[in-house]
Amino acid sequence: MTRSAHTAAGSVLLLGAALISSGCVSTQDIEALQSQIANLERQLLQIQTQSPTKTEVQALAAQVSKQNEGLLKSEADMQLRLDQLSSQIEALQSRLEDTNYRLGNLSQQIAATNQELKAFRAQQRLAPVEVDPNAPPAPPPAQVDTDPRALYDAAYSDYVRGSYDLAIRQFQEYLTAFPTTDLADNAAYWIGECYYRQKKFKEAITEFDRVLERYAGSDKVPSALLKKGYAYLELGQRSQGVAQLQKVIREYPKSDEASLARQRIKELGG
Questions:
Q1: What is the pLDDT of residue 150?
Q2: Model confidence at 230, in pLDDT bands (50, 70, 90)?
Q3: Model-level pTM greater than 0.70?
Q4: For residues 174 and 155, is the Cβ–Cβ distance under 8 A?
Q5: Neighbouring C-beta atoms of residue 190, cutoff 10 Å
Q6: Residue 54 — very low, low, confident or very high, per pLDDT cuts 50/70/90?
Q7: How many angstroms from the chain centroid is the CA of residue 30?
Q8: What is the C-alpha separation between 71 and 151, in angstroms, rounded?
């Protein structure tokens, strides 16, 4: 019984006691008492109707507990799925970074090969010397120990085949015999590439520096800067490597090497 019901019942009892003790009970008093009793009964009935039974409370508690268990299980399943997805994403990210690195190296090789092809075509454009059939025979040309183009092509072929030690020796021979030719800067650059391919990164940096110092106006300078940066990164010298890549971007912003430098800095989280 609620507090209001208790209060109403107490009032009825007090009123009844007062009427009995006074000894004068009228019809109106009795009717009033009966009306109050009827109101009290209605209140009791309403309270009983609205109040849940013990069984209902237990059933509701069981239902809530079951729902909580279901929510906890769903949350655990969801967390497991999220963990699995996270692992898959990390694996894919790793594979993507490896692929980007390989593509970068391949792009660099393609760019270098294109430069070599342009130089070769430029050599081929030279017009052949026409011989006058009526002219007296010319004396045979002086024999030279080595044909510069043949020596360069042989060295580059060895580089392409992966014979890096042989390619280094031949490129060095070329630079010793023909230090001022149009392909001297290329020969110096490919010596650095040979060392880089052999993972001799310190030696590669030395050779790339030689390109930068001796052939400052060469079209090989952006490539030398780029690969110098790569070599520093391979040696674990991140700050120096990034500095070289940023120099490529700053001084040759529209070059293929600048695009590769931006990509590598992005992979490093820069």
A1: 93
A2: very high
A3: no
A4: yes
A5: 27
A6: confident
A7: 91
A8: 77
Burial code (b: 16+ CB inside 10 Å, e: under 16) for 27-50 equals eeeeeeeeebeeebeebeeeeeee
The torsion of the CA quartet 170, 172, 173, 176, rounded to 10 degrees, works out to: 160
Q: Which residues contact 158 (CB under 8 A, 6 or more apart)?
A: 164, 166, 167, 170
pLDDT over threshold 50, residue 126: no
Instruction: Give the whole-angstrom CA distance, residue 204 versus residue 88.
Output: 37
Contact by Cβ (8 Å): 38, 10: no
The candidate with the shortest Cα–Cα distance to 233, out of 265, 192, 187, 198, is 265
Q: DSSP letters along 77-112, please?
A: HHHHHHHHHHHHHHHHHHHHHHHHHHHHHHHHHHHH
Whether 144 shows a pLDDT value over 50: the answer reads no
User: Are the CB atoms for 192 and 207 separated by under 8 Å?
Assistant: yes
Distance CA 168, CA 72 (A): 67
Q: How far apart are CA 4 and CA 129, in angstroms?
A: 126
Which amino acid would we find at residue 133? P
> If you average pLDDT over every residue of the chain, what do you get?
78
Nearest to 266 by CA among 92, 106, 104: 104
